[in-house]
Amino acid sequence: MPVRHPFTVALAGLVLLGALILANDVSAQQANEVRALWVARASLTSPATVEAVVKTAHDYGFNTLLVEVRGHADSYLRDGVEPTGPEDPRSMPIFDALQALITCAHANTLRVHAWINVNLVTTATNLPASRNHIVYRHPEWLMVPRNLADQLAKLQPGNPSYLGTLLRWTREHAEIVKGLYLSPLTAGATAYTAGVLANLVAKYPVDGVHLDSLYYPDNIFDYSRTAMDELRADVRPRLSVAERSQLDSSNQPFDYADHYPERWTAFRRSRLTALLMRLRTVVKTRRPTAVFSAALVPDEFDARTRRLQDWRTWLDGHLLDVACPIGYTQDTDIFETQIATIREIATSSKVWAGIDAYRLSPSQTINNIQAARRQRVDGVALFSYDSLTDPAQHEINYLAEVSRGAFRLDAVAPESQ
Q: Is the CB of residue 271 less than 8 Å from the CB of residue 184?
């Protein structure tokens, strides 16, 4: 019987322990997990850039692309119904960027989801060039903050000063608002958004639709005159004669919101939920198997009270196929807590953990992926292809580092998911 040297036995034990740790780590990865990348419109300007996006995603273990096709109420579709965006690939007449991406991605076993910004329709610093843009055609559909409402109530929306005043205020309050937003309280605005989405799903065989900016920028919005009219029409039939007389005598446009703050808050939440339901119907009517997802504000209190995004109701009502909370924090513990909360609530929806990777190191992103897996998520999504492949932002090959550290199992083909 051969004599075993103690060092050999110890080394063998370490190798076995390492193999077990690796096996456990790999087993935490579900073979069918979604590994998504958000892809901004600027990366889809030519056949070469489309091929580069698909190759990079495939090579580094991703299986899903969330592709921006509506940035700020502008179109990156060949036959879009909105004005063209600043990086419009239609400068090449025969090139249809989205269709080219779908064809190339499917040939390489990747899914393509159309990423749609819903309410955010322009930044305040980079206004649309086209006068056919919705902010010029229907300024009355834009959300208005409470502390600007009195001033704007004295102006007609068609007056250039109306939009100019709203823009100046927005620039001065960049800490709370990114730009100008369409109001979900306005029937014309919601019908318009639904029409944009209907055009998309009718013309392109996307695997899913991913909604972004489906929230209010802050709870001080929307005090536009159109929104006040909608609130009045909703509340007035349920008031007593005395209550109606009291409000009518004051003749102040914001009295209904000021007198019934709880109803006002609930009304805004419910109208946002109604918009979500309408957009879901649009997608599922045309493409029943398309995955319907939305980016969620990760902290439930902030989402419900400040952004008026009642995602608990959305999840309880089975309104989303996939919930995608976006972890803006750089603290992995906070990130995991937020993901755990949504995972517990989302009993009938899948959960993809959105990771703001461009602000994190590769090791931080890997830690967040592992944290998300501990909470049994169905996938992860990294923001974004454009920033993570930009050598000016990352000297190392960021996606290669993440792939080596987090994607040891090959992602399955889209058909198998």
A: yes
DSSP letter (8 states) at residue 8: H
Tokens for 42, please give them.
Answer: 């600027």
Q: What is the pLDDT of residue 86?
A: 64
- Write down the pTM of the prediction: 0.90
Asked if the structure places residue 21 within a domain, the reply is no
Report how far residue 273's alpha carbon sits from residue 106's, in angstroms, rounded to the nearest whole number. 32
CATH classification at residue 122: 3.20.20.80
Give the DSSP H or E segment for 35.
strand 34-39
Joined tokens for residue 247 = 């409000």
Using DSSP bridges, classify how beta strands 350-355 and 379-382 pair: parallel, antiparallel or unpaired.
Answer: parallel
Q: Does residue 213 form part of some domain?
A: yes
SS3 221: strand
C-alpha closest to that of 404 among 366, 350, 356, 360? 366
Residue 238 falls inside a structural domain: yes
**What are the tokens at 75?**
């179109």
Q: What is the largest CA-CA distance in the chain?
A: 104
User: For 69-99, how does the pLDDT look when each residue is reduced to its tens digit (9 = 90+)?
Assistant: 998 888 777 777 787 766 554 444 467 899 9
pLDDT band at 183 (very low <50, low <70, confident <90, very high): very high
Residue 153: helix, strand or coil by DSSP?
helix
Q: Which two tokens stand for residue 194?
A: 């639904």
Task: Write out the residue range of the structural domain in which residue 293 sits.
Answer: 33-407
Domain count, the chain: 1
Checking if the pLDDT of 18 tops 70, the result is: no
Structure-block tokens of residue 181: 């937003």
94 belongs to a structural domain: yes
Amino acid letter, 108: N
Distance from C-alpha of 378 to C-alpha of 352, rounded to nearest angstrom: 6
CB 339 within 8 A of CB 376: no
* DSSP strands (E only) in 266-360: 291-296, 322-327, 350-355
- Which residues, at least 6 apart from 109, have a Cβ–Cβ distance to it below 8 Å? 58, 63, 413, 414, 415
Three-class secondary structure of residue 263 per DSSP: helix
Measure CA of the first residue to CA of the last residue in the chain; give whole Å.
52
> For residues 280 and 314, what is the distance between their CA atoms, to the nearest angstrom?
11
Region 322-338: mean pLDDT is 95
